Amino acid sequence: MPNKPKIAIVGIGRWGKNLLRVFNDISDIALCVHSGKAENESWLRENYPKIPHSTNFKDILKDKTIEAVIIATPIQTHYKLVTEVLEAGKHVFVEKPLSPNLEESKSATALAKEKKKVLFVGYTFLFHPIFQKLKKELAGSTPTFADFHWSKFGTFDEDMRPNLMPHELSIMIELLGAPKSGRVLATEGIFTKEDILATEFTFKDGARAISYMTRVAPAKHKRVTISDGISIYTWQNDELYRAKSGKVECIHKGEIGEPLLLECKYFIECVKSGSSKVHPDGAFSTEVTEAISFL
Fold first, then answer.
1. CATH architecture of 129-254
2. What pLDDT is stored for residue 237 in this prediction?
């Protein structure tokens, strides 16, 4: 397949299946590695019968034709897999977070720099077209306050802080910079020890951000409100509003392109160009992990 990098995918859980779907159209998938569960075997044979698959991660490391590896495995496995891939001289796309451990995150970032390989960490919301529009609207201004509200139902098999909080923090850091401090305002467990989480972060020049997250809501809803002291912008689901001088108007409506597809295309272009300026990278993910450590 000309001009399509040869890649491998590790993990075909819920999100791994989405990544496989997207990368199958924009790259040459040489191998898919999974845990060996019978349902994984049957799903791959039914949906992607032409893609070779294995239960041995080492098969990827041995194949010198594979240029990049996509990692969508449980969070606690990220660091080990990322470092092995980098040591094998391959580029990496890993789902957030790079590691919930700050020192591991720093170590993997340094290794990618040493090996001169792309280390991309997946924060899908940063590729949302409405987020990109919001960034353009705020260009040249200084945000002073942000309010985040994210409601959904599930999933309950991972902790909220390393699994869900990075989404909100990635947006905060992209718009406000790395926070100086953070604290928990409220927390509540329903099905697990923590299913509702309210936090506050402070940034340079006195900017503040408040986040409320719940994974026990009956309907999915996402809202980001941010002020620069002149205008107030609200990103709500697939719409962007601007309030200024007592008037509110919708300035963007509807998605233009799937965020995950835009994210994956960006990674492929970075691999093809060998770019050292990939974003979000390991250093960005380290900032997110450090912010979570404040709580």
1. 2-Layer Sandwich (3.30)
2. 86
